[in-house]
Amino acid sequence: MEFISRHLGPDAPEQATMLAQVGYDSVEALVDAAIPSSIRATTTPQLPPARSETEAQERLRELASKNTVLKSFYGQGYSDTITPPVIRRGLLEDAGWYTAYTPYQPEISQGRLEALLNFQTLIEELTGLPIANASLLDEASAVAEAVGLMSRAVKKGRRVVLDSRLHPQVLTVAAERARAIELEVDIADLRDGLVGEDIVGVVAAYTGTTGDILDPRTLIEEVHTRGALVTVAADPLSLLLLEGPGHLGADIVVGSTQRFGVPLFFGGPHAAYMAVADKLKRQMPGRLVGVSVDATGAPAYRLALQTREQHIRRERATSNICTAQALLANVASMYAVYHGPAGLKRIAQRIHAHAVAFAEAVQAAGNTVVSAEFFDTVTVSGVDAAAIKAELQSRGYLVRAIGTDQISVSFGESATAQDVAVLAAAFGAQPADVPSADADSADAADGQSADTRLPQALLRTTPALSHHIFNSIHSETQMLRYLRELSDKDLALDRTMIPLGSCTMKLNPTAAMEPISWPEFAGIHPYAPQETTAGWRELIEELEEWLAQITGYAKVSIQPNAGSQGELAGLLAIRRYHLANGDHGRDVVLIPASAHGTNAASATLANLRVVVVKTATDGSIDLSDLDAKIEQHAAHLAGIMITYPSTHGVFDPEVREVCEKVHAAGGQVYIDGANMNALSGWAQPGEFGGDVSHLNLHKTFTIPHGGGGPGVGPVAVAEHLVPFLPTNANDPDLDPAVATAISTGVPITATEYGSAGVLPISWAYLAMVGADGLAAATAHAILGANYLASRLGEAFSILYTGNAGLVAHECILDLRELTDASGVTATDVAKRLIDYGFHAPTLAFPVAGTLMVEPTESEDLAELDRFVEAMLSIRAEIQEIIDGKVDYDKSVIHHAPFTAAAVTSDDWDYEFTRQQAAYPVDSLRRAKYFPPVRRLDEAYGDRNLVCSCPPPEAFDTTN
Question: Where is the Glycine cleavage system P-protein N-terminal domain (predicted)?
Fold first, then answer.
């Protein structure tokens, strides 16, 4: 059976039933009516013939075999690590974890919220700061976010100082992001002290890229006397042995948790982190998990301070972070739970012992080590770097050459004494020169090797990971059960349809997921030599070409590691295009009110001014308001951002006209590709008027959401914008001290190919569907949405429709009249859906008081009908309130959802029955999901902000 028949939910008889409901004879006829003829593609994407699952994996095996897996001692922010098999199989590769959505409905997200709270607690305890977020995208962009945070908190300066000892890719990305928001950037060796005034902050490396360790206390005091802030970039594993920067006075600490069990993945996805001082907690970017209480007063988790969510703040946003790296943060947190503080400390000690043994060996052979103090990285100078690197590569080892006369060797978790001997021999060391570096060579009494090269003044004295969770689950059996316990609390795609409008929660094919953990893909360092990564580069080149074919653009870059970063890359391309043409005044971007919220946030980060265009009564762009805004801002118009089809769930027929109007005024057209699941195979943004688009591979192209990440947001551009695509942050010709020429692009993420590790998923999906399958998937997404709109249209008003009264791949259910009549809110409906075993549709976006429903092509008729049954049952419950049969305050919907403990309790003070609460429809008796908590008190968690793991006694229900 071909893959597309597995991917599409409805079979032929079910399709016929659905078509009959919407009034069309064929899927093609439906699509012809729904999609305006003015935007229909004139050509079919040139994709290879569809492969079977087996054939696709065989081709991936072929590509993987073209990569050479070297033992990685390269470092530069990416370290060899070992993913415990129980975590790899029970989390990274488990659909209960990777198919989950961002935990916006906390009652059905308690498992992943707990795992993310573990992550936050891990970071807080290691860094010595009280608040940490639930991950960022990568270390380089985390530093950039820290720079933005410092500039917002310290308003009197316009200069940031970056430590030259930061990793090169971090310097490049952070410097360009700072310049984009008009900060002056100084790059200086902070070992020499701080020079100058008018600074908002300093970013210091702890440790440096060549391995040296700077005591930052004097620097921190000096910066603070000038009224500025200090960010410290730190390797979290080193903080098991070194004092946390927060205890040394740092205001912000950032870094990557990659070496906590997350594979190298050719550069990503990896969970970055940020921890801040208490005074900065309400300005921190990214998501924050907090501890609140449910309706019974029991502890429960939720996303705290949700007003900071950037897609909600729009043009007032300070960051465009939407997707982060939740799945990888969960891997890192479970790695810490599994090993515990003692285990992590042993790993750190063993790594340091190997580094010390190597340093002593090469020094005994007459070589010079650039720093006497280090954690895991030893840099040797005065050598023939090219020759040594080549010799070690021939032996299967990857080390870093710095210039022509330095070699840096960075030790990871899997390093052995035999590796130390091989590495040292390349520097002329004899076996007798190589000290023992066995795992047990560290002194268990004080946690330090007898030959430590750590600075004595910075040895950690404060306890780390003291919470119970890091000291209780260390056997495989315990971890297996803990992972199952948490996933059982959640509703993910492996249990139920997730009808989230604009989020495209479709099938993540298992055949596409499997290859990402193959060592030939997962075990490759992002800076490995080109000759060792031929398979990766071939896969990426094919994927970029396929995406260009699908979108109708000239070229695609897959570097952006989230949709938000793709937006930023596209807007920076537009901005730099205008600057290169001498149009320095073009800094206004028009954004329709129907656009995705991150659009405005990304525009702000690209230093563009946002002007909102009104929505017409039918949900389309108000053309008269567009004309007025174009006329008002003509001399400054940089472009327009259009979400297409719009977030209102309709195909705007006038989109070509909109594009032509903006082009006539000298602007560029950005078409947000987040809704490509309604276009792929039928229409091409690059053909109907777009100059640039970003795509969401974690939506249309089946990379899983992972509970809030990973995401990949490729940027696609027309020919004239190709020079402005993202560049390689690790390009040795780039000088971060000098602004990149405006005639080129800038790096967006730390590595050339961003979150490459998950690209085999989208490659496999496209390889298995081919052009015809891709068009079929889109058509069935439109069919599913129109089927639901037709079935539910009499009970709930459909807010907007397009051609022939049809919707696109999603529809908006308008509950506002029902709310006025009954008091029942869209939130009430979302919570009641939990009792029916469903994740709610998108709540209150883009219109307050509504639910936006997107079924995707992957849901079969039975699941669609189950959702219809649930919604109609809830509608009947609302009608009872409208008819006066039930008071809203006493209704089942007002008190939903219900836990198993609630419906089995001896106490039941409600006027409705337990059966009505838990089993409102008979189909639930076959498979019933009970949430672990009752409805959360949203306000309590913000008034009483707690963002680390509560003590075990907080969950004692006997009191």
Answer: 6-426, 470-726
